[in-house]
């Protein structure tokens, strides 16, 4: 379970998260809806251990991650767009990331590339990828090590409808496997039939 307790974040005089209290549990897909600058991406960064709150607690599987100075375990994220090495192929980029934990190898990498419809382009240099292909590679890196928590920021950006439909089916399958999935977007239609619960966020407040 993920729990945010009274999470408040301020940069200078700018309040970006205003007393956030929310729980996310397994077997669910959650949506965060808000315009750009509303605070939804900041919530994702806070959950991932990237941005320490000014006050409040982020508790993941009974671990207060900031108090313990740790990152959440078995968590993967795609935040603010995919970022990979331009001079490597799609496959090589995933292979490089996989080498950090050595949880998966060629078989799993190729499997996830097939799942997101990117296998035919696996040997293409990343700098030659279209926006949609880059997005699918970003989704693939979230999926490939079978994490318990999957976090996405605008995951359908740049995807054609066929690819978006396939990704939705993948996420529903992941939910059935007991995962926690959190999706932030400014387009409600992207997730309204996908999520068990949708929160609206505006000016750092969650409703």
In short:
By secondary structure, the chain is α/β, with parallel strands linked by helices. It has helices spanning 40-47, 90-101, 106-115, 131-143, 161-176; strands spanning 2-11, 14-24, 28-33, 55-60, 63-64, 75-78, 149-153, 180-185, 197-202, 205-206.
SSE run: EEEHEEEHHHEHEEE
Counting copies of identical and different chains, the oligomeric state is single chain
Percentage of residues assigned to helices: 25-40%
> Tell me, what's the shape?
globular
C-alpha Rg (nearest Å): 17 Å
Low-confidence stretches: none
Number of helices: 5
Biggest sheet: strands, sense, closure?
A: 6 strands, mixed
Supply the helix-strand structural class: alpha/beta
Total number of strands: 10
Terminal CA distance reads 20 Å
Mean pLDDT, rounded to whole units?
94
Question: Which strand order does the major sheet show?
Answer: 6-7-8-3-9-10
Beta-strand percentage?
25-35%
